[in-house]
Amino acid sequence: MGCLTQKSVKFVATLAALFISLATAANAQTCLTAEEMDAAIKSALTGAAQRYYGWVGQGDVASLRQNAIPGLAANFGGIEAAVTENKANLAGTKPSPRPPYLLKLDGSAPIERAEFLCGVFGANGQTPTSAVFAIPNLPPGNYAVAVLDASTAKGPYTVSFVLQQEGTTWKFAGFYVKAAQAAGHDGQWFVTKAREFKTKGQMRNAWLYAAVARDMLVPVPFMSTMVTDKLYDEFQSVKPADLPPSDISAAGKTFKVNSLYLLPVNNELDLILKYASADVSNTTQTFQDNQAVMKALVAKYPEFRGAFDSVVVRAVEPSGRDFGSLLPMKDIK
Known about the structure:
By secondary structure, the protein is of the alpha+beta class. It has helices at residues 39-58, 61-66, 70-73, 77-90, 187-199, 203-216, 226-236, 283-300, and strands at 4-6, 9-11, 29-32, 96-97, 101-105, 111-118, 121-122, 125-126, 131-138, 141-152, 155-166, 169-179, 223-224, 247-250, 253-265, 268-276, 310-316, 322-328.
């Protein structure tokens, strides 16, 4: 299972990444909320999540692997790294479990995109108590998503477990650790800032802040709620066509942009740009290219000056190797 960690927001692992086969056959997808499921099942799910949480806090990688589904146990490097990174923060804490969700996928083959509608929906879609989970390349089976809230020395966190049923046991199938605050702010703060930028006509800043808000307002990236659906609709209608830009011209060169996004880092809000590079081994030249791209980016979009503390530009080779440079916004002339 792959693992992607980005400081305050840690993408740890997804069940979906384990499966690469696709299927077009029709599969029945159902979801039971905690209110709809049998009390014994609810208790089993909550108990399993709390047990796995305890092992994470203890750094007990062996027990987690032993209780993982086979595909995850065979590719446990990402999980082990995430446990090592988070065990000190979670050690000794007592989490509060949220009501779990039980996801059932019938059929005989994996489905390209399984979508589970949980709770009551209205004429306009989701309601305050509903949720949607969309997971790609999912094989048939019984799954669960169990979320726990943790109060840590670094602030509030959510720790979410994906579980898969094997017989009467709920196996460890992946988890996410996410800070509920970024750079000292919660998701609603980013919503408010996005709307302020929108009012000012700074649609690029508005879109980038809204994207962080949507991510922070759910515990796992494959979940959506009424709040995140409305937020997406609100800002999708004003998303600038040039975001991210396809390329940046700087220092007589054209750089193909891979991505552009806001990343809260410690107490700063950084703007991250990644561009394609054939070779980053000449670090002196790559550093100069990065500096040129920073200046060209801010010159092209001056509204960024009032929205971000620093700019980070990373040149990325096809192999994934990269070289990054950072400048505080005030030093970009």
